[in-house]
């Protein structure tokens, strides 16, 4: 899943970006409010991790604009502004969760997973589909209770399809899920990853929708 990280502090941003990538997310890092606004206007994100004290446009102003425009992407506010009044203000502006600095990276990742569960209408980490058991937080997949090893790209595609059951995902949408700003899109990569997933998890798991993309059907 693709996450927008909005943070102007280089040290904190590097740590959060590395932690999110290790947790299996594709990360775009915006270092000011204008860059963040452009990113959300042009790219579909599963989650935003947003600092409030940003140059050019404040995080609070960004959040207000996004909510007024009807954008419902989950937002985790990450900031040194830790007073009750500031936290209440951030939540009132549309934040879904609030984590003050300094913070524990493990807690940040856990809160991200919790926000995604809530957005997807799940109360627990496990996703069960046919004979698959998938744990997004632990990045594990079991087929008939036997652990299956997936690459990071295969994992990202599987999770995108699982969280959009019955909705065909185009090649370009899957590429958006896999590749951040600084990553080069590999030729025919989506087709190769889909083929590998079918070999590992079952030929009938993912259906090709002609001239559209790929889909996992609702049960």
The total count of helices amounts to 8
Structural class: alpha/beta
Biggest sheet details: 5 strands, parallel
Mean pLDDT: 90
As for the CATH topology of the largest domain, it is Rossmann fold
A few lines on this structure:
Helix content is 41%, strand content 21%.
Which key phrases capture this entry?
219 residues; alpha/beta; Rossmann fold; Arc Repressor Mutant, subunit A; 2 domains; five-stranded parallel beta sheet; 8 helices; 21% strand; Sig_transdc_resp-reg_receiver; cytoplasm
Question: Could you explain how this protein is built, in words?
Answer:
This protein starts with a strand and ends with a strand. By secondary structure, the chain is an alpha/beta fold. The chain has two domains: 2-119, Response regulator (Rossmann fold); 127-215, Winged helix-like DNA-binding domain superfamily/Winged helix DNA-binding domain (Arc Repressor Mutant, subunit A). It is built from eight helices and twelve strands. The chain has helices at residues 10-22, 33-42, 59-68, 84-92, 105-119, 152-162, 171-178, 189-201; strands spanning 2-6, 26-30, 47-50, 75-79, 97-100, 127-129, 132-135, 140-143, 146-148, 169-170, 207-209, 213-215. It has a five-stranded parallel beta sheet with strand order 2-1-3-4-5, with helices on both faces. It has a four-stranded antiparallel beta sheet with strand order 6-7-8-9, with no helix packed on it. Helix 6 (152-162) packs across helix 8. 41% of the residues lie in helices and 21% in strands.
């Amino acid at each position: 899943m693709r996450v927008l990280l909005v943070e102007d502090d280089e040290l904190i941003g590097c740590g959060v970006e590395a932690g999110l990538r290790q947790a299996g997310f594709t990360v775009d890092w915006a270092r000011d409010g204008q860059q963040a606004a452009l990113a959300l206007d042009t790219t579909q994100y599963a989650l935003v991790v947003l600092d409030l004290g940003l140059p050019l446009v404040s995080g609070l102003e960004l959040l207000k604009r996004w909510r007024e425009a009807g954008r419902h992407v989950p937002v985790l506010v990450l900031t040194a502004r830790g007073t009750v009044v500031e936290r209440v203000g951030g939540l009132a502006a549309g934040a879904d969760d609030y984590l003050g600095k300094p913070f524990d990276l493990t807690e940040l990742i856990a809160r991200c997973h919790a926000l995604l569960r809530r957005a997807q209408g799940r109360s627990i980490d496990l996703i069960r589909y046919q004979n698959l058991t998938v744990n997004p937080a632990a990045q594990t997949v079991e087929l008939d209770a036997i652990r299956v090893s997936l690459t990071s790209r295969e994992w990202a595609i599987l999770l995108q399809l699982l969280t959009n059951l019955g909705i065909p995902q185009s090649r370009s949408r899957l590429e958006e899920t896999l590749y951040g700003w600084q990553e080069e899109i590999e030729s025919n990569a989506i087709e190769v990853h889909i083929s590998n997933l079918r070999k590992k998890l079952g030929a009938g798991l993912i259906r090709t929708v002609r001239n559209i993309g790929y889909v996992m059907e609702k049960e």
